[in-house]
Design brief:
Helix content: 25-40%
Number of domains: 3
Number of helices: 15
Strand order of the largest sheet: 3-4-1-2-5-6-7-8
Distance between the termini: 87 Å
CATH architecture of the largest domain: Beta Barrel
Number of strands: 22
Length: 551
């Protein structure tokens, strides 16, 4: 464990490594005071207690009026610069070791925020420019043109050369200076696109990739210009390419030798054949995907057009038939009493104490529904499910097939329309009124957004638990009491029940299936609504049951 010796000499603070300790110093674990002007700390203690060391040294620097920091070994310079950061009295820095100033120390000097003058043995030109931009004066005791083979090969004389360079050449093996300068280069460069390598060394490749990954470089091609016939090395580079294509797109481009191509011609042909088959397959899959998306988009546009037509027809109908009533556009006339033909010579049969029958009035037809009948006479109601796209008129045919492939205009349409089971009685309401719709997931039309009902964030909201389904003559609300997904079956598609017991068994079955306990009471006196659509690619059914709560 290295010890760091801090010595005070006039207005200077000297820091150096102390590897050989005197006998009386060997017992020091973390820190000790040797004399009035000497302090000894373990390097580990300093690194773990930078804030404490900062406060301690700040007091000493102020007391002794120190303005110059002298560091003997460059290896400890980053740590010491972290400790004296923002101590304004320290404005001068002397690095005594006869070595080249590296980027890491230069970065620490700038971040210290208080150094105004630096004395070093040697400094690369681009680092000199960096310090100069921060108004830090640099004195070099020795001058060389380039700090490493990497800098010389790529003619990196100044900071602007490094910043704007678009392509570089790497010659392996790398020295420590090469590696340091390359790291400094990629930290400061913003335009690099191509790296050319004349000779390949696996270890060096791994090292430079690690540096490039650490700086999050992307979209760079590394050109291997030597002819490679080592299959294991080629496979290694291919593996890296496969990994990088999905992440940072640092890609190796390899020049194969003629020998390699000749020896692997058949495998290349087979590989190309496989690639061609994959491309063809992808083309057909892609075409299918495009067709599906186009088909769904067209369906969505068609539904939007129909919805707009419906709004226009309703508005026009209301305007033409406005009779100062808010909800009713047609009031049926009370049927006039018909006078039967009476044979005066015959006494009519009249039951004693029985009131004469009164003709029953037909229930009122709402404005919107009356208007919809002008578009499609199969209209039997309107369905709205909160926080979904389901807000459609409901139709009914004499079978359950027609509206699987036809829209509200009775045009051929794969998305079909929302329709009631052909057995449903819409005037008196069946015990179980069943409504179907295609699960058009991609376009979201018909029951394409009913999948939301499977999510707890949807079915636990009170507003979503009320479904609006109105017939031609009645405005009705229904409260959900069961939601579930079940394998393809018809046991929940029963419209009427021959006995009360069978209806109760049915209610028990569908309530027990529910994925959530809605705590909604349902009895055999109630009428229910069932929404059904496909899910899991047609293998299952998503089902919602709701009970009528008001008419």
């Amino acid at each position: 464990m290295n010890k760091l010796l801090f010595q005070i000499n006039e207005n200077k603070l000297l820091v150096q490594c102390k590897k050989r300790l005197k006998t009386d110093q060997k017992s020091i674990i973390n820190t000790n005071v040797i004399s009035q002007n000497e302090l000894l700390f373990s390097e580990e203690y300093v690194a773990s207690n930078i804030k404490i060391m900062h406060s301690f040294l700040k007091e000493i620097i102020n007391d002794y009026n120190i303005n110059t920091l002298v560091i003997k070994e460059s290896s400890i310079a980053p740590l010491i610069l972290d400790v004296i950061k923002n101590i304004n009295k320290i404005v001068n820095l002397h690095l005594l070791e006869e070595t080249l100033l590296n980027y890491k120390i230069c970065e620490k000097i700038i971040n210290a925020n208080n150094i105004k003058y630096v004395s070093v043995y040697n400094i690369p030109t681009f680092l000199l420019e960096m310090l100069d931009k921060e108004n830090i004066v640099v004195s070099s005791r020795n001058e060389i043109l380039f700090s490493s083979n990497f800098m010389e090969t790529n003619n990196l004389n100044n900071y602007s050369d490094i910043y704007y360079k678009t392509k570089i050449v790497l010659t392996f093996p790398f020295s420590k200076n090469d590696e340091d300068d390359f790291e400094a280069f990629i930290k400061n460069n913003r335009y690099l696109k191509h790296i050319y390598i004349n000779s390949l060394n696996k270890n060096d490749i791994e090292n430079i990739l690690e540096l490039m990954y650490s700086q999050k470089l992307k979209n760079i091609k590394i050109h291997i210009e030597q002819n490679i016939n080592d299959i294991s090395l080629i496979e290694y580079l291919k593996k890296i390419n496969k990994k990088n294509q999905k992440t940072n797109k640092i890609i190796f481009k390899i020049d194969y030798t003629k020998e390699y191509l000749e020896n692997n011609l058949m495998s290349q042909v087979q590989l190309n054949t496989i690639k061609l088959c994959i491309i063809i397959s992808l083309f057909f899959v892609g075409s299918l995907v495009v067709y599906v998306f186009y088909s769904n988009y067209r369906s969505m546009q068609t539904v939007d057009d129909i919805q707009n037509d419906i709004k226009d027809v309703i508005a026009e109908y209301v305007e033409e038939n406005n009779d100062n009533q808010d909800n009713i556009i047609e009031e049926p006339n009370t049927p006039s009493e018909e006078i039967p033909n009476v044979d005066e010579n015959k006494t009519p049969d009249v039951e004693e104490n029985k009131e004469p029958s009164v003709p029953q009035e037909k229930e009122e037809i709402t404005r919107d529904m009356k208007a919809l009948l002008t578009i499609n006479e199969d209209t039997v109601g309107w369905l709205k499910v909160n926080n979904t796209n389901i807000d459609y008129p409901v139709v009914q045919s004499n079978d359950n097939d027609y509206y699987l492939t036809h829209n509200f205009r009775k045009e051929d349409e794969k998305s079909g329309w929302v329709f009631a089971d052909y057995r449903a009685n819409m005037e008196t309401l069946s015990t179980n009124t069943i409504i179907f719709g295609h699960n058009m997931y991609y376009s979201g039309v018909m029951f394409g957004t009913l999948y939301k009902a499977k999510s707890a964030s949807w079915y636990t909201k009170k507003e979503n638990q009320i479904i609006e389904f109105s017939s031609l003559y009645k405005k009705m609300n229904w409260q959900i009491f069961s939601i579930y997904v079940v394998d393809k079956t018809s046991d929940y598609l029963i419209a009427e029940f021959s006995t009360t017991e069978k209806y109760q068994n049915f209610l028990d079955l569908i309530t027990k299936r529910s994925k959530y306990n809605f705590n909604v009471p349902v009895s055999t006196e109630d009428k229910i609504l069932t929404l059904s659509t496909c899910t899991n690619n047609g293998k299952s059914r998503l089902v919602i049951h709701a009970v009528l709560i008001n008419e």
